[in-house]
Amino acid sequence: MPALWLDILRESGAVAALRNGSLPAGERPRDGAAGWLRAAGRLRAELAEAGRGLRAEHDVGLVDLLLSLDVPVAGPDTTTVSS
Q: Which pTM value belongs to this model?
């Protein structure tokens, strides 16, 4: 299930907007980029339930952020890395 949500966020442009601020003001969370981070708890729970990590291998900054939020991240060989 987490992969589905990540695909939706990528296809909608939300991931790119979080990285570079390209989303129009009316489409951003009212509390800025911090609003996106509220989903970390849910993401952690869904990944723990699925027993896997999130694939984010092409963006070191995103990997660092996910690890700082204790979100499990899958390594390039699909093993789970924890912080």
A: 0.55
Strand order in the sheet with 80-81: 54-55, 73-74, 80-81
Q: Is 23 helix (H, G, I), strand (E, B) or coil?
A: coil
Among 41, 81, 78, 42, which Cα is nearest to 63's? 81
How many domains does one find in the chain? Answer: 1
Task: Provide the residue range defining the domain that includes 35.
Answer: 2-81
Number of neighbouring beta carbons within 10 Å of residue 14: 17
CA nearest 2: which of 37, 38, 49? 49
Q: CB neighbours (10 Å) of residue 66?
A: 22
For 6-62, how does the pLDDT look when each residue is reduced to its tens digit (9 = 90+)? 777 777 777 777 777 777 777 777 777 677 677 788 888 888 888 888 877 777 877
